[in-house]
C-alpha cells in the first residue's frame, strides 16, 4: 500500500545518502518530492532516479533567501507542502582544541541554523496536519571525540523539535527527530579523514553496535516513512533512533 499518495514532500540534502533514500522511499510511496542541495549534478541525477513527479531546487540550507525560494517555488509548483525533512548536514572531524571560529560557524550553520530556518520558512507554507522531520545524530547524546561542534548542533536540533512540537501543535503539524547512526554514505568522505582513518572509524563504530554492522540509507528511509505517514499519527516531539542499538545499551 502506498502511504504518501497525494502528499508533497521537501527533502533537504535529497541529492545524496540518507536524504536521497528518503526522497526515493517517499516517491515510491506516491509523494511528489522536491529535493534541495548545493550540487547541481547530483541534484539532476537524483531527480531522474525518482519514480514519480519530482523537482529539484539548487540552494544552500544556510541561506535565508535560498530557503525562501525553496518553499515559494515548491508551493507555486505543487500548490501545497505536507512533509518537510530537514536532513542537510554533515560532520567534520576535528579535535576540540583545533576548532577555529570559522570551523565552528561552518558546522553549526548547516547542522543547527540551517535546520532552524528550514522549518521556520517551511511552516507558514505547510498544510495543517503536516509532518516535519529533523535528522539528528547519536552524537547528540553520546561522546564522539572529534565531533564537539557537530554533536552540540545535533543536540540543539533535538531540543528544537520539542519546542516546535508545542508551537506548531495548534496546526497539528507533528515535529519528530530521526536519529540515524552510523550509516554508509558519502558523509564519511566529507569528514576530512583519510581512507584508512575512515576504515578504522567504521570498524570502531561497528564494534560498538549490538547488531555489529553499519546501517544502510534504506533502513533510515523506512523510519522516515513511518514519521511522515499517518502510521505515526500519535507520535510528536519524539526521537526515533535508528542506530542498531548503539545508544540504547
Ligand atoms: N551517515 C551517517 O552515519 C550519519 C549519522 C548520523 C547523522 N547523519 C546525518 O544524516 C544527514 C544526511 O547525511 P548523509 O550521511 O546522507 O551524508 P551525505 O551523503 O554527505 O549527504 C549530505 C547531504 O546534505 C546536503 N548538504 C550539506 N550541506 C548543505 C547545505 N549547506 N545546503 C544544502 N544542502 C547541504 C548535501 O548536498 P550538497 O553537497 O549538494 O549541498 C547532501 O545532499 C546529515 O544531517 C547527517 O548529519 C548521518
From TrEMBL:
- Say which domain of life the source belongs to: Bacteria
For this protein, the record's Pfam families field holds: adh_short_C2
Keyword terms: Oxidoreductase
Under the heading InterPro entries, the entry gives: NAD(P)-bd_dom_sf (IPR036291), SDR_fam (IPR002347)
Q: Entry's CDD domains?
A: SDR_c (cd05233)
Q: Which GO terms describe its molecular function?
A: oxidoreductase activity
Asked if the keyword Oxidoreductase belongs to this entry, the reply reads yes
**Entry annotated with the keyword Oxidoreductase:** yes
Family per record: Belongs to the short-chain dehydrogenases/reductases (SDR) family.
NCBIfam families named in the record:
PRK07231.1
What name does the UniProt record give this protein? SDR family oxidoreductase
Q: To which species is this protein native?
A: Halioxenophilus aromaticivorans
